[in-house]
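Q: Convert this sequence to structure tokens.
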Amino acid sequence: MPIEQPVAMSDTGSPAGHVVVSVDAMGGDQGPAVVVAGLVLSAEKNPDIAFLLHGDRAVLEPLLRKRPQLAARCRIVHAAATVTMDAKPSQVVRHGQDTSMWSALESVRSGEATVAVSCGNTGALMALAMLRLRKLPGVNRPAIACLWPSRNPQGFNVMLDVGADVRADAEDLLQYALMGASYARNGLELARPRVGLLNVGTEEHKGRAELRAAAELIGEGAGPAQFDFVGFVEGGDIPSERVDVIVTDGFTGNIALKTGEGTAALIRDFLGEAFRKSLFARFAALLALTSLRRLQKRIDPRRVNGGVFLGLNGTVVKSHGSADATGVSAAVKLAFRLAQSGFQERLAQRMAGSMPAQPAADPADGAVASPVAADLAAAAPRPGGAA
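A:
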């Protein structure tokens, strides 16, 4: 899908030194106005970001006219259609060539952008990313990695998979450990990440057979892959300082993620109700205002919005569909940091030659290939080639 003339950028592309982020402006529950508002926040904070904005030109141009500073760093790529939240991935793969989501991924595939961001349909995004970007060699199953606020010095732990595939056998969980370790090493600057396998208890005999088998495989691979395996961890360890990377299947990880976000929102609501209950409570809240704001910022799920699709020939960040401007800005910030650090190249180098059998050096990369997505890719027309 050819890129049309820019709105307020030269035909030669983004300004020198800028990281180009490809954004699906039409995806998500809140509409393109919220996506553009999130880009405004990102642009204000970082002058080194430029955007390819994919969507309906008639909708996007008026939004950019109101924000000339953002428009100067944006180029609109017209895409007439939108992937809806209830769209079936198989239909999007077969008939989604005119959608903003397809167009956003195509810009990464062609090299015009370094990373793609979308708030849209997760299943469709994964299927299209598999089709257009393809997996790195050795990757079997998908993994979406998220950052979880924690007590560790870096402030976050990595958890994967949080929804790419509901199933995972022992070898899949080993791959997740390798991917997560690399993400933590490159994204959180941890020389030797600590990896834990999520289970119903920490005892060696606990859990399903595939978890016990995975624990053995991960333990054997920890030395060559340069991470420490701490064994089984429980739900209470996810935000703890005991571990840096939590490995689990996508079904469990997604439930844990949504539960954590809901709990954070509940605590925020309870605090608000408590401090509004009486005049004395309001006065106490005023005295504690700085501490309360700091707490609210730490537990605000919008500020860690963005799951990274690992193991593709290109970086894709999935934002929550319900993200507001703050959430979109957080996802763009994550995408920018990964692109700026050369994260994708490092992952590809570490992955090369290290899979599929036993880990050799530090095969830490991701995957984004579920059986469903693989079936969709097989059924769809073959793309030209990997980026």
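The radius of gyration is 21 Å.
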